[in-house]
Write a structure and sequence with these properties.
- By secondary structure, this protein is mostly helical.
- The protein has helices at about 25-40, 50-60, 65-70, 70-75, 80-100, 125-135, 140-160, 165-175, 180-195, 205, 220-235, 235-260, 260-270, 300-305, and strands at about 105, 110, 115-120, 120-125, 280-285, 290-295, 315, 325.
- The protein is built from 14 helices and 8 strands.
- The chain has a two-stranded antiparallel ribbon. It has a two-stranded antiparallel ribbon with strand order 2-3.
- The longest helix has 22 residues, at about 235-260.
- About 30% of the residues are buried.
- It binds zinc ion.
Length: about 325
């Protein structure tokens, strides 16, 4: 039995190795996604492509292929034969991206000439989003990438807008007006893709927690906090509640990944299930040294810990009962 398992690709596979040290597979995923930029300039009118056409593009643009076909023994191969020799490898990468929801495969149709069956593909909105996030790294394409990404996100939200989506879109609009959309959205998404410690399984995880950002840079934090409060205050009371609950759920979900005393955290989170304004977290007690569940008002937490970090907030330990012995963590 072959024990070597095929690696299951994730969104993180696209930037595996991190910027400057990308793996061969990561570079190929990136160049395949980049092909979408040629194809979808006229978004939302998507064009379709074939693996044959894509492979031709890669022979001209994917550096490992370019180098390989510079070799004396392969230099004089016909273009058709070069493409054929790479077709299967490219096809398997396209299949990976189909599984990740970045490319969509259509029902096979007959090619225009002859009787061969040709599979046609199309990039999805998510595929285009990732292509533009990566493209935004190049300074000369930065503004164009911002424009394209903003449009994609905008369209993305129209049909399925939850209260949280409306809030985030409101934030994006303010970022655009203040010229910080690139820094506050694209740079963060790109950093997440390139973080080799993070395992981002799908698009939902890539976009998680974008409703509240944390900046260590004081000027950025101040501007973000200002825009955040403005956007929040423009919502009606009903929507505000839903947005805060959504943020609460995201933070608690992230906290759950980091807690050391899971049962205690679960108990507190359960007790607070009917209070969308109070957050369950965990901190380590400086007195007894144990991880302990803690609770805090969500607005207080967001304003003082996440948006505009000030002096640390200290709370009581539920285990040894000592006051002000646990620092509220920044999740
Ligand atoms: Zn304690």
């Amino acid at each position: 039995m072959d024990l070597e398992m095929k690696k299951i690709p994730t969104i993180s596979s696209i930037c595996e190795g991190g910027e400057g040290r990308y793996t061969y597979d990561a570079l190929m995923y990136q160049d395949i996604l980049r092909y979408s930029i040629l194809h979808n300039y006229d978004y939302p009118a998507f064009k379709t492509f074939t693996v044959y056409g894509l492979t031709g593009y890669l022979i001209d643009h994917f550096s490992p292929f370019i180098n390989e076909f510079k070799e004396l023994s392969k230099r004089n191969k016909s273009r058709h034969n070069k493409i054929l020799s790479k077709l299967d490898g490219v096809k398997s990468k396209v299949d990976d991206l189909v599984n990740l929801g970045l490319i969509e495969q259509f029902e096979p149709s007959r090619a225009s000439r002859g009787s061969t069956i040709t599979n046609r593909y199309q990039y999805t909105e998510s595929g285009c989003l990732i292509a533009w996030i990566l493209e935004g790294a190049k300074s000369r394409k930065k503004l164009l990438a911002e424009e394209q990404l903003y449009n994609l996100l905008d369209i993305d939200y129209v049909d399925t807008a939850s209260s949280h989506d409306v809030f985030v879109l409101g934030l994006y609009t303010k970022y655009r007006q203040r010229g910080v959309f690139g820094e506050f959205v694209i740079d963060i998404l790109r950093a997440r893709l390139n973080d080799s410690n993070a395992k981002i399984m799908n698009m939902k995880e890539l976009f998680l927690n974008l409703g509240v950002l944390h900046f260590t840079d004081k000027d950025k934090a101040t501007l973000h906090s200002e825009l955040w409060s403005e956007t929040m205050n423009e919502l009606d009371e009903e929507m505000k509640k839903y947005v805060l609950q959504n943020i609460k759920l995201e933070i608690e979900q992230e906290m759950e990944r980091q807690v050391k005393y899971i049962r205690g955290f679960e108990e507190l989170r359960y007790q607070l299930r009917n209070q969308p304004n109070i957050l369950a977290l965990e901190g380590v007690c400086q007195s007894c040294g144990l991880p302990s569940p803690i609770q805090i008002e969500i607005i207080e937490y967001l304003e003082n810990t996440k948006l505009l970090p000030s002096d640390p907030i200290l709370v009581r330990c539920r285990i040894c009962k000592k006051y002000a012995s646990i620092t509220v963590p920044q999740i």
